[in-house]
From TrEMBL:
PROSITE patterns for the chain: PROKAR_LIPOPROTEIN
Superkingdom: Bacteria
Organismal lineage: Bacteria, Thermotogati, Deinococcota, Deinococci, Deinococcales
UniProt name for this protein: Lipoprotein
Species per Swiss-Prot/TrEMBL record: Deinococcus rhizophilus
Amino acid sequence: MRKLGALTALSLLLASCGGGPERVPDNAPAETTVSGRIQTWQSGTSGSVALTGLLPLVPLASAPVDAAGSFRLTLPTGPLVEAQTRSIPETLEQGLSDLNCTSAGLTVSDPAARGLLFFTLRAEGGGAGAREVAAASLTRSGPLSASFDARAWLYTDRVVTVTGRINCRVAGLTAPITVNVKTVPGWIKLKISATGSYGFGGPSASGTVTRTLTDLNTWLTLAEVGQALQ
């Protein structure tokens, strides 16, 4: 499954602004849909988005995109998804490598659990060719500081807890990202967040990966996000 492979810069400047961490109840239900608006969609044209699996020619799910660029995709379940699940470490390691990140020690509560992870959807139409789009939002605080908020979706076949840390490297900086995620059977939404800045004390970067119930409706192409982070 393709994730954010073309976007190596995303691995550092991931973050959200605002108050304290969101508290998600352990029994919060699984996610059933993915929705949002593709920002550069050409008004008045229609198209589609698709969640591609390990076999790109066989999408796991698809949905129409309306003339304003908005969509709502129903997340797939059942044998088609189960057939493409892998061990939790394997699916996370693949995602980490696509984000220019490496594991710095992750613990999975049930080694037998299986899952599937995705960051992007494949969009077609809207005045452009096929491209990967991701739920992402960038905030800059002057030329030397930036924050980024992104979403990913993780499917697991049972309750599992993933904790530990990953390291994400770009432009010579390493950002330690703390992971603390508890799943439910089915899909959950992940918030990938961090901050990066240069100050009098030198460069600093940090972030978290947690479960969230909060949508991020802004969907950008990988090229758009990459340009924003340059």
